[in-house]
Every structure is written in C-alpha cells, then in structure tokens.
Specification:
By secondary structure, the protein is an alpha+beta fold. The chain is built from three helices and three strands; from the N terminus they run ααββαβ.
C-alpha cells in the first residue's frame, strides 16, 4: 500500500465491536474471521509506523511511540507509560504502539 494512499482505518470502537461480535458468535481465535480482523489492525499499524513513526527512529531510538489514526505522535520511555497516555489522548484502540528499534515491537526473551 502506498504511503500516499488515503484510507479509512479501523477505529478502536470498530475493533471492539467486531471482536465482541465474533466472541459472542463462538468464533475461535484462529478462525479466518478473527485473522481478517487482526490483518486490518496490522495493516493500519504498519502504515502509521511507516508514514509517521519511522522518522523518529534516529532521534528517539529505544523509546516507545504511539501514533493516532490521524498521525499525531506521543513518545515515552516505557511501553506502560505510553499506553496509558495514548489511551487517554487518542482513545482505546485508536493508535499504533511500537518500540523505535530495528524490530519495532515487543521483544520476547527466553
């Protein structure tokens, strides 16, 4: 998808509504319906990071970034602090949250 392409991204309210509908219908988490919902969220979040977040990689490396659907940005040191502020500022589910690093997500340590 082009970064120039305008898109009506899925909102937190729409995610919650569809998630609730699928759960109430007894759809398993690994079903195609859930996978389609997750894909919409991933596509939105990838676009937001590419369009608005990546430019902060050099100046705020290692910090966490939240990007609203309309491109507003909040950067904080920890994921927990960022999540709380972003939910208050943008609304639940209305933002992408990533770490500004080569791998822009949660790292799993074994």
């Amino acid at each position: 998808m082009s970064l120039d392409q305008k898109q009506n991204w899925i909102t937190g309210e729409e995610v919650h509504r569809e998630n609730r509908r699928l759960i109430e219908a007894g759809i398993p988490d690994d079903a195609p319906e859930f996978q389609a919902l997750f894909k919409r969220i991933d596509e939105r979040d990838d676009y937001l990071y590419e369009a608005y977040g990546k430019k902060y990689l050099d100046t705020h490396y290692g910090k966490w970034i939240a990007i609203s659907i309309d491109g507003r940005v909040i950067i904080r040191d920890t994921a927990g602090e960022l999540g709380q502020i972003a939910r208050e500022e943008f609304g639940p589910g209305n933002f992408s949250k990533r770490k500004l690093a080569e791998f822009p997500g949660h790292r799993i340590f074994s």
